[in-house]
Amino acid sequence: MARRPFIAGNWKMNLGPAAAGELASSLKSALMDETGVDILVAPTALAIPSVVDKLRHTGLLVGAQDLHPANNGAYTSQVSGPMFREAGCTHVLVGHSERRSLFGDDDEVVNEKVQASFSSGLLPILCVGETLSQREAGQAESVVAAQLHAGLAGLAPDQVVSTTIAYEPVWAIGTGVTASPDQAQEMHAFIRSVLASTYPSFVAAQTRIQYGGSVKPSNAAELLAQPDIDGALVGGAALTVESFVAIVRAGS
Ligand code: PEP
């Protein structure tokens, strides 16, 4: 079964409810008829209701950027999976490198969040990727394999298939430096081989693996043409209609 392309925009801590709603309206007009690709935007938690409202009855999906593993309780400032689900989200990013490096999300917490996504009816986008020093030390594959095994621990094969893996080399996020199509393809093929050696064969064949790290209109087509790259997780270039639409079109 062919893997359907999946392009996601991570708006990070940009765009409040009004600006996010405006971008969502523009994306709706531009992308409503784009049927060959799954499209998702992940606004700040506060802007989710306004974006969900604007994208209602379109195929465009809304995701959260993170979740707390508990359903509710004394966790000041946090938002849980069931709350995002109730607000209209379908997906949630888990283990983004900014969560790992700035907020201390280790592999154990990442796995708790992946499990919490499923128990609240959200599909996780599990982000993995090595730092520059890890790559230079020849550890890129071992780091990514460890993040994958830990992040997916305890999931049934059909849950792994419903998880999107986002390979995001940390050295390429927000830096303007993109992994070359060959470098990205090599790691995506490696990720698929890890899935193949861990789960029944349909898992590696069907699980979607996005590339993330300075994806822009000028490099999207070449990256997305690689056989094991099934989509993109886009940061900076997801913040303007023109660039995000161009990336989506490159993937469709
Ligand atoms: C990201 O943060 O997921 C990302 C890939 O950012 P950028 O596209 O800006 O590098």
Brief characterization of the structure:
The chain is α/β, with parallel strands linked by helices. It has helices spanning 17-31, 48-55, 81-87, 97-102, 107-119, 132-136, 140-152, 157-162, 181-198, 201-206, 217-224, 241-251; strands at residues 6-10, 38-42, 61-64, 91-94, 123-128, 164-167, 209-212, 231-234.
Report on this structure.
It is a single chain. The protein has helices at 17-31, 48-55, 81-87, 97-102, 107-119, 132-136, 140-152, 157-162, 181-198, 201-206, 217-224, 241-251, and strands spanning 6-10, 38-42, 61-64, 91-94, 123-128, 164-167, 209-212, 231-234. The protein is of the alpha/beta class and 252 residues long. The protein has one domain: Aldolase class I (TIM Barrel, Alpha-Beta Barrel), CATH 3.20.20. It has an eight-stranded parallel beta barrel, surrounded by seven helices. It binds phosphoenolpyruvate. Phosphoenolpyruvate (PEP) binds at residues 10, 168, 173-174, 212-215, 233-237.
Q: Helix and strand succession? A: EHEHEHEHHEHHHEHHEHEH
* Record field, number of beta strands: 8
CA gyration radius, whole angstroms: 17 Å
Fourth-level CATH superfamily: Aldolase class I
Terminus-to-terminus distance: 17 Å
**Which class in CATH terms?**
Alpha Beta
Bound molecules: phosphoenolpyruvate
Number of domains: 1
Tally of helical runs? 12
Which spans have pLDDT < 50 for at least 5 consecutive residues? none
Q: How would you characterize the largest beta sheet?
A: 8 strands, parallel, barrel
Give the name of the CATH architecture. Alpha-Beta Barrel
CATH topology call: TIM Barrel
Indicate the percent of residues in helices: 40-55%
